[in-house]
Amino acid sequence: MAASEWETRILEKGRLTVPRDLRARLDLKKGDKVRFHLQEGKIRLIVPRLEEDLVERTRGVLKGVEPELTVEELEDALLKAVASKAKTKEET
């Protein structure tokens, strides 16, 4: 997807207006929640609802794929890893 850029001003009390075209593209409505993610001087606007949609859209894609370990084998490996880590902490 090609990158797009919009500009807006920060208003009193730190309020921002999300530009109309961006709201339309993301189907943002009054009352929708968004998150801001700050990393290396850049801010990403995250729409949690869209992240949840991704989970719903990909539900079942791994149907029929057999795991390499059984539930019991996974539990055993987890318990061994936790015990090993606890033992290492006791030694230090």
Question: Any overview of this molecule?
Answer:
The chain has 92 residues and is of the alpha+beta class. The protein has one domain (12-91). Helix content is 42%, strand content 11%. It has three helices and two strands, in the order αββαα. Strands 1-2 form a two-stranded antiparallel ribbon. A hairpin with a 2-residue loop joins strand 1 (35-39) and strand 2. The chain is elongated. The model has no long low-confidence stretch (mean pLDDT 82).
Helix content bin: 40-55%
- Write down the domain tally: 1
Are there runs of 5+ residues with pLDDT below 50, and where?
none
How does the major sheet shape up? 2 strands, antiparallel
Average pLDDT rating: 82
Through-space gap between termini: 50 Å
Order of helices and strands: HEEHH
**What structural class is derived from the secondary structure elements?**
alpha+beta
Number of strands: 2
Q: In DSSP terms, counting alpha (H) and pi (I) runs of 4 or more, how many helices? A: 3
Radius of gyration: 22 Å
State which percent range the strand residues make up.
5-15%
In order across it, which strands form the biggest sheet? 1-2
Task: Give the CA-based shape.
Answer: elongated
